[in-house]
Amino acid sequence: MIYCEKPNIRNSRKLYRWRNCKCIYSISRNIFVFLGGLITYANDLKMSLANVPEKILQKHGAVSEQTAKAMAEGGRLKLNTDYTIAVTGIAGPDGGTKEKPVGTVWIALAGPHRTIAKVFHFGNHRGRNIEKTMLYAANLIRKEILEIA
């Protein structure tokens, strides 16, 4: 069992719509106060809603460590929350490149003490990519809370 003083959390993501919010909420009701999320598929929304600098998007692209971290940090400040998780990636079945193939996902977590980002390569199956992303994102939050508790 995890005990903490119910930090609030929000989700800023590009890839997985409401399913990620639903997953985090369903497993975290006793751990977190889940306040909501942003859907920022378009770069202009990443800039206006999650405060991602245009320079980062131009230099690194939407699916990158820098963008994931900027989404998490910007979302955290904009939404005034303890933790914000950001997801950006290519679920498939189309959209991948040689450098960023289908299944490439960056998950970032911004909290009061640090911002971390991890890359995952889940493969070519869209449904599995979405499910794995939800689980890995929730686990990243769980690990961070356990580490600071």
From TrEMBL:
Q: Which residues form the CinA C-terminal domain?
A: 33-144
Fetch the Gene3D superfamilies from UniProt.
CinA-like
For this UniProt entry, which segments traverse the membrane? 23-42
Q: Which UniProt keywords apply?
A: Membrane, Transmembrane, Transmembrane helix
Q: Which InterPro entries match?
A: CinA-like_C, CinA_C
> In which domain of life is the source organism classified?
Bacteria
Q: Extract the Pfam families matched here.
A: CinA
Q: What is this protein called?
A: CinA C-terminal domain-containing protein
The organism's taxonomy opens as: Bacteria, Pseudomonadati, Bacteroidota, Flavobacteriia, Flavobacteriales
